[in-house]
Amino acid sequence: MADVLEIRPQESAEENAQQMTDGFHLVIDALKANDIDTIFGLVGIPITDLARLAQAEGMRFIGFRHEQHAGNAAAIAGYMTQKPGICLTVSAPGFLNGLTALANATTNCFPMILISGSSEREIVDLQQGDYEEMDQLNAAKPYAKAAYRVLHAEDIGIGVARAIRAAVSGRPGGVYLDLPAKLLSQTIDAVKAKQSLVRVIDAAPRQLPAPDSVKRAIDLLKGAKRPLVLLGKGAAYSQADKEIRAFIEKTGIPYLPMSMAKGLLPDTHEQSASAARSFVLAESDVVVLVGARLNWLLSHGKGKTWGNPKKFVQIDISPQEMDSNVAIAAPLVGDIGSCVAALVDQVGDDFPQPPKEWLDAVSEKKNKNLEKMAATLAKNPTPMNFHSALRVLRDIVKQNPDINVVNEGANTLDYARAIIDMYQPRKRFDSGTWGVMGIGMGFAIGAAVTSGKPVLAIEGDSAFGFSGMELETICRYELPVCTVIFNNNGVYRGTDVNPTGGKDVAPTVFVKDARYDKMIEAFGGIGYNVTTPEELEKALKEAIASGKPTLINAVIDEAAGTESGRLTNLNPQSAAMKK
Ligand code: ADP
């Protein structure tokens, strides 16, 4: 009898425990119910157990050293997969670090969800001074596409579903989900909890264009004398690769890819007008924008860059994008796959091909510029410069067309974008819409984890500094990331001097001859220090073949590099400094 009496209470406690669950479990269940299998984040109060539980429940948790980079990894994962990337942070400062990435994701139209633990509402709202107290929901709102807070465990399922749909439907963007500490430990009946889970059906529904807008666009194209197609990262995101290729090839129109749309069609495609960019932008008369905004990256669609007056067809999922900078003659609102397919349907054998004079003029300009570039790339100056180093990287990417390329910096970004051809869609990830520094290691980790394929991160020495500590993360997860640092001893270059002759170096100058390769060795990765294109090539081949975390410190001429790369017009210098 005694035995039975001892056992019974234990059994009934277990039975009870099986019938109850809590907020922690429910958040994980809600994500898993929507096929989300990876969380990027950084643990601490109150979300450490959430990360532990995610791992215990079979999800992948990738822990970072700073939330901004976890957020960037989540954002690029969202861009690559059309599923929101998840970033998990602690409250207040951790949340704010993640918010930078959330704002960047929203700006770039990448779907991600930033989930942050937060302090108790009662204390925050009365401003009574809680641990890491902050009104995170309101802080997130201006920088997110949507922001939600869940207060009751039974609403976790609907909260996660709402966040997923907001992130990926229509124009994708960043969503903030606020989870107060108290919510996570709330218990709830397990059956009720299960019933509260929501699997989102058709999270990003197709949006078909209206037939009359398709006709308007086709009529405009039929009358074009010098047509041009411009592919943006929205086109790459939409994964309408086949439709886009069919449209370009059936119409015979020359096209220009924006930087992250490179590879949507191979950059070596004969209709690519990249090498004649300035010419086609200025000379074209009808331009079809496919998932590309007329923002600063395209000189707002006006001015000298755009030369001749022209008419625009714009394909975008956001109706408000139309007429944002210049008048759009033929707006085509809908998802890119549906819009482009509707155009292809109207392009029969009788569809007029672009006039021969236009195509000849484009290829003449293109060939001339390609020859000029080939001559520049063939030079072998000592010390090595951007061009001779990038020649090597260009060849490596050609030999490894499925490698993911991450690229940031000023000159390193501008030159690499122009010199390195891409061959496959969604393989190039860079500073994007803001032209921001600091995405490097976060994007590299996100791309490696998401694709399982190698990553080549091409970094200016200044740009690398923003996320360099994540080398430890790369080594910890043994990711096949090869980071190449273009080291010219400073921001833009390393030759500036302090005009006063004082002890401090100039604001743009770093420690001379820094050995970034030693940093990765501290974490068990492999470092290389190279000073010539031959050494760079050997190191790169070895690094990529190894599949291990590697870093190549590529020493280039410290006088190479212009102020702000190609953005000199955005960097007003004082009259005194110009003298
Ligand atoms: P880029 O910087 O390459 O020029 P942008 O980020 O400026 O590209 O533009 C991307 C555009 O693509 C945004 O206006 C966005 O609304 C749009 N977009 C994103 N996804 C889709 C989609 N699936 N269908 C249609 N438009 C999309």
TrEMBL record:
Q: Give a yes or no for keyword Iron in this entry.
A: no
Enzyme class (EC, first level)? lyase
Q: Which reaction does this chain catalyze?
A: oxalyl-CoA + H(+) = formyl-CoA + CO2
Give the species this sequence originates from. Paraburkholderia franconis
Q: Which residues form a coiled coil?
A: none
Question: Mind telling me which InterPro entries this protein's record contains?
Answer: DHS-like_NAD/FAD-binding_dom (IPR029035), HACL1-like (IPR045025), Oxalyl-CoA_decarboxylase (IPR017660), THDP-binding (IPR029061), Thiamin_PyroP_enz_cen_dom (IPR012000), Thiamin_PyroP_enz_TPP-bd_dom (IPR012001), TPP_enzyme_TPP-bd (IPR011766)
Q: Which superkingdom, per the lineage?
A: Bacteria
User: What GO molecular function annotations does the UniProt record carry, in alphabetical order?
Assistant: ADP binding; identical protein binding; magnesium ion binding; oxalyl-CoA decarboxylase activity; thiamine pyrophosphate binding
Q: Could you say which residues form the signal peptide? A: none
User: Which pathway does the UniProt entry assign to this protein?
Assistant: Metabolic intermediate degradation; oxalate degradation; CO(2) and formate from oxalate: step 2/2
Q: Where is the Thiamine pyrophosphate enzyme central domain?
A: 214-343
Where is the Thiamine pyrophosphate enzyme TPP-binding domain positioned along the sequence? Answer: 412-553
Q: Is Metal-binding given among the entry's keywords? A: yes
Q: What is this protein called?
A: Oxalyl-CoA decarboxylase
Similarity section: Belongs to the TPP enzyme family.
Q: Which PANTHER family does this UniProt record tie to the protein? A: 2-HYDROXYACYL-COA LYASE, 2-HYDROXYACYL-COA LYASE 1
User: What are the residue boundaries of the Thiamine pyrophosphate enzyme N-terminal TPP-binding domain, all occurrences included?
Assistant: 23-137
Q: Which cofactor does it need?
A: thiamine diphosphate
Subunit structure of this entry? Answer: Homotetramer; dimer of dimers.
